[in-house]
Specification:
The chain has 346 residues and is of the alpha+beta class. The chain has 11 helices and 14 strands. Helix 5 packs across helix 8. The radius of gyration is 29 Å and the shape is elongated.
Length: 346
């Protein structure tokens, strides 16, 4: 107890025998606004997977953003207090009011917006669908679907959903896949040729159901086509339900990036002339004028003046845990998607 020089009583200070294990969390303005809004937003704690090279760390996720939690130590201790009322040792009928410290915090948790892109980690976490003759998943490998992958992915729901869409991920029979760049290029070529065959203009709304039936005959299963359509579809709601509308420059950029990845993911550059030939050959004639280096700026590098390859920004991630390349054989064990996923067709 402290007493002032005028003889006035000060605030009695007590220390609890058992201190609580608490941590202070310093919230950035955006998180504080979410928690004080009505109704308050939900926050969830997740963690990254630890490896031999890097330890895991905790993250705090809102609906659309992820924050890395970092512990910051301070030379000054912070005490957490709560009002208390303690009976007098000499007079049980009287009591004194004061403050009791219930916890001592020597470190603070800071929530820092995470800069790591979800697309990088998601690509590395999902097995690659490397052809359209899908073999069975090895019996020793338990299937992991979209929900299971999200649970292990240290990102918010919106970031995860956007990355899932960006890489054209899909789920079949409880197993998630991401199509390889070669598969994506084949699907793109089938979409373009299917539109030409049906007399559709890629500059207008395209009937997805009719297009699906057409390219299905080109051995492109609907469950692979659908995520590609969702990736290319304009998101501002201008297209009618059941129709596909694309933005020419953005679609040409995506197609060029996919092609460049498919041709150079082995680490070897390709001829610039060959790249432009294949790129333009895979576009409708009215869109070929958009096939320029400026369209894919920031996504390529040129080891020499005559060669080109995708850079890390364009490639954006590593490989999946396994590939379905074993299905490339023409033997009796290789089964086309019609047989393997007959129940998945719509």
């Amino acid at each position: 107890m402290s007493t002032s020089t005028q003889g006035q009583r000060g605030i009695t200070f007590y220390v609890a025998h058992e201190q609580q294990n608490l941590r202070l969390l310093e919230l950035p303005p955006i998180l504080l606004e979410l928690l004080t809004s009505q109704p308050p937003s939900k926050l969830s704690l997740k963690s990254t997977v630890s490896t031999e090279e890097t330890p895991g760390h905790a993250v705090l996720c809102s609906d659309n953003q992820t924050f890395q939690l970092r512990q910051v130590h301070s030379s000054n201790s912070v005490f957490l207090l709560q009002p208390s009322c303690v009976a007098s040792d000499t007079d049980q009928a009287s009591s004194s009011h004061g403050m009791t410290t219930v916890a001592k915090c020597e470190a603070t948790l800071e929530a820092i917006p995470q800069s790591i892109q979800c697309t990088h980690q998601l690509r590395a976490a999902i097995p690659v669908l490397s052809n359209l003759e899908v073999d069975t998943i090895p019996p020793s490998t338990p299937p992991r679907g979209k929900v299971a992958i999200f649970d292990d992915c240290p990102f918010s729901v919106r970031e995860f959903e956007q990355a899932w869409k960006d890489i054209c991920a899909l789920e079949v029979e409880g197993q998630a896949f991401r199509p390889s760049s070669e598969v994506l290029w084949k699907v793109w070529r089938s979409i373009v040729s299917g539109c030409i065959l049906k007399g559709f203009s890629l500059d207008q709304d395209i009937d997805v159901s009719s297009l699906t039936r057409t390219i299905e005959e080109d051995d492109v299963p609907p469950f692979v086509m659908r995520p590609v359509v969702d990736r290319l579809r304009v998101n501002n709601g201008v297209a009618l339900h059941g129709y596909l509308r694309m933005i020419p420059v953005e679609s040409v950029q995506w197609a060029g990036t996919v092609l460049l990845e498919a041709r150079t993911e082995d680490g070897n550059a390709m001829s610039v002339a060959a790249f432009f030939h294949d790129w333009k050959d895979g576009l409708p004639e009215s869109w070929r004028r958009y096939a320029t280096l400026e369209t894919i700026e920031g996504k390529f590098m040129q080891p020499s003046e005559d060669t080109i390859m995708l850079n890390e920004s364009g490639l954006s991630a590593g490989k999946g845990s396994y590939s379905t390349t074993t299905a490339k054989s023409n033997g009796p064990q290789a089964r086309r998607w019609h047989e393997k996923f007959k129940s998945s067709r719509r």
